[in-house]
Design brief:
Elements lengths: L1 H12 L7 E12 H8 L10 E7 L3 E2 L4 E2 L13 E15 L3 E15 L12 H13 L9 E10 L24 E15 L14
Parallel strand pairs: 1-5
Antiparallel strand pairs: 1-2, 3-4, 5-6, 6-8, 7-8
Length: 211
């Protein structure tokens, strides 16, 4: 369910003019150095690591063929205005009623920005402006789908601003320069409340006359 919620929030902020590379939920992918090099088109220095932990879009494995499917990597990249993705922080049961179940999902929005490429004037569009524009779009989301309803979002706060945001992934040593000015990196945490309606099976009709 968190994947579907992340897709809704992704769609909501995709239209902002400083957003270009964005996806919904990502997973921690495990690639060889050769696979990373082939995907990004250049070689990175990963010391003695043979397997690289990468922020990878979902859909890596094709369930029908068990072969790698389409995916992308979400490392900071100066070729883009922004690199944005969601991380799954879990889901909890809030309340259970006769006809519905209430849940709260927690998602982290990881945002990296290249201020040199952001329009309009980067001296006007500052860090707090970026956060405010993202929050304004996300906190306005209310959705009802075939899977859930009564969805609404609460902002929990900003995570620590540092390279620790990427700590679960293996960064090439040269990537750490993208954590400093003129680049921006921050993570925003959200609680998303929603309701799932219980679906009861049709009453079973017993007909003793039928053998």
């Amino acid at each position: 369910m968190n994947e579907k919620i992340a897709d809704i929030l992704k769609t909501t902020i995709s239209g902002l003019n400083f957003v270009d590379k964005i996806t919904g939920l990502i997973q921690v992918g495990y690639l060889t150095k050769g696979e990373v090099q082939k995907k990004v088109g250049k070689e990175f220095a990963y010391d003695e690591l043979n397997t690289i932990k990468v922020p990878m879009s979902l859909g890596y494995t094709d369930c029908t063929t068990s072969k790698p499917g389409s995916y992308d990597l979400y490392f900071p990249d100066k070729a883009y205005k922004s690199v944005i993705f969601f991380e799954d922080q879990g889901v909890s049961l809030v309340d259970q009623h006769r006809a519905r179940i209430d849940y709260v999902a927690t998602l982290r929005l990881v945002c990296w920005f290249n201020r040199k490429k952001i329009e309009p004037d980067t001296t006007v569009l500052k860090r707090n402006d970026l956060i405010a524009l993202l929050n304004n779009a996300i906190l306005d989301v209310q959705a009802n789908t075939s899977d859930f309803n009564r969805l609404y979002v609460e902002f929990k706060g900003e995570a620590v601003h540092s390279e620790d945001i990427y700590s679960k992934y293996d960064l090439d040593v040269n990537m750490y320069q993208y954590m400093m000015y003129p680049y921006e990196l921050f993570a925003l945490d959200y609680d998303i409340f929603y309701t799932v309606t219980k679906i009861c099976p049709d009453d079973i009709e017993l007909n003793p006359d039928v053998c």
